């Protein structure tokens, strides 16, 4: 393996659950020395949530905390706070995602941290921005999806707002914070000074919902949205409706049934009618007469009976598995993919080869599957290792900070670590 890009960067990972840990885990994959600072009483809550093996760290924890070290310490004691301050003086980055005000209550405000170490970059996740009327709220994934515009625009028009299975509020916010921290590290090269980088989960969700804000503006101007199933036969109100499985751009698409859908909940493909590929699409689905038929040959003509067209395509799909269908359609350059189940993803050999799904060893659990690094570099391959046990590196870290064996023993005896 080549030199790790972030080697030498010291990160204090004062995070929990998913948003913060997702950010710091990727810093660790890129080579930073990431020290997870956890409560002595159980550590990060995800160590205990939804355990599949008694007394062994849950997969929720192991999948978000690989390549890190763990220091278990009560930072609310004077001795614990002193350790934190020593760590801060020596670190490049501190990341936290506690409830609003928790860092201040611990005596670790941004102002104090900046004074202790002006070079340190302070990354912070909250549910909402500081000036939001909801700034005081504690926030989890689905709360953010609802506040960021994802839920009101996801699902079907005759059903309630729906949240996505993708962690738009959690891991997505962590990735936004990662971008901010790396940018602040580059800025520090020029200025020599660190800064506070804040990301709200509401903003991170909204950033992925930008086309829905586009649609709101179009709706207010036009009164309709031509690519939505509600057009032209349904009705629009003054706000963006839920569009089911419609495509978000100018290319209509839908999830279509394939052979076996009656018993297999994932026997479907996503089928896109790409405007510039209409002729070959007709060829692919064996409807050559549609190519020049005025009722079919333009986007506008198709939209009024788009679901009849999808019904016809489903008839063509009826004797094909999702894989057979995609194998045919790819020859005609139809943008499409099978709907893959998590089981298919877990055992997909291509995802294993690319390192997108990896098997990792854990000291107590044995081997487990986790999502690997989604960013591929030409000169560096992240090596993913297991997550640390609670407090596994406490003594090592205290020694690095200059504490002698007697003092470390005393800190243990007093319950500080
Ligand atoms: N030693 C001593 N105390 C510690 C500690 C340590 N090592 N680590 C944390 N604590 C304390 C905090 O200071 C806080 O104390 P306080 O409430 O007296 O100020 C307490 O533990 C609980 O902190 P926290 O985990 O933030 O609270 P919570 O479990 O009630 O709330 C969240 C959890 C996720 C809802 C909340 O942290 C939050 O809204 N975070 C911001 C948004 C976010 O990241 N959400 C999660 C996305 S995955």
Query: Mean pLDDT, as a whole number?
Result: 97
CATH architecture of the largest domain: 3-Layer(aba) Sandwich
Q: Radius of gyration in whole Å, from Cα?
A: 26 Å
Structural domain count: 2
CATH homologous superfamily descriptor of the largest domain: Crotonobetainyl-coa:carnitine coa-transferase, domain 1
CATH topology of the largest domain: Rossmann fold
Which small-molecule species are bound to the chains here? Answer: coenzyme A
Strand order of the largest sheet: 3-2-1-4-5-6
Q: In CATH's first tier, which class of the largest domain applies? A: Alpha Beta
Strand content: 5-15%
Helix content: 25-40%
Spans with pLDDT under 50 lasting ≥5 residues?
none
Overall shape: it is: elongated
Number of helices: 17
Q: Looking at the chains present, what oligomeric state does this protein adopt?
A: single chain
Distance between the termini: 35 Å
Structural class: alpha/beta
Helix-strand topology string: EHEHEHEHHEHHEHHEEHHHHEHHEEHH
Number of strands: 11
The description of the largest β-sheet is: 6 strands, parallel
